[in-house]
Design a protein that fits this description.
173 residues; alpha/beta; 5 helices; 36% helix; 18% strand
Length: 173
Amino acid sequence: VGKGTTFTLEMPVRKINEMPDQQGVTSINPFRLSEEEAVPGVDHELPVILIVEDNDELREFIKESLESNWKVITASNGQEGWRKIERDLPEVVITDVMMPGMIGFVLCRKIKDDHRTAHIGVIVLTAKGAQESKLEGIESGADQYLTKPFHMSELELRVRNILQKQYHLMVYL
């Protein structure tokens, strides 16, 4: 009292690097680390997308479709997905709903309720198209809800939109 108070706030800041896109236009890649920040042996160039899907063929199809633009990792169920989320902190998780063990809605809620992972974008990809299921997915914190069958181009656009939103939050906040 009478002397005042001093607060010190330290925030880690990482440099944002510019890189040319496929058409040769220079743009900012918020996920590319500077050389000083990069960890040797780890690919820091691309955002990480985690696919959590118990159907092997569908999981592999989505992975092959997305890996030309992003680093894609996979998990065959919710528990394995959660372990990879904690370890790799992907930018986006694409999850099925009906899986053995931990269902997708529970995984989504777990992601959004944990301060370490709440920023991760979640796309629920499911055959459950009823309004009740959509509401449950949105209530669990899903950023996007996409029903099967789906168009790969729509899934890619949804991933891009989530990444763009994360980029704007990172740059403008």
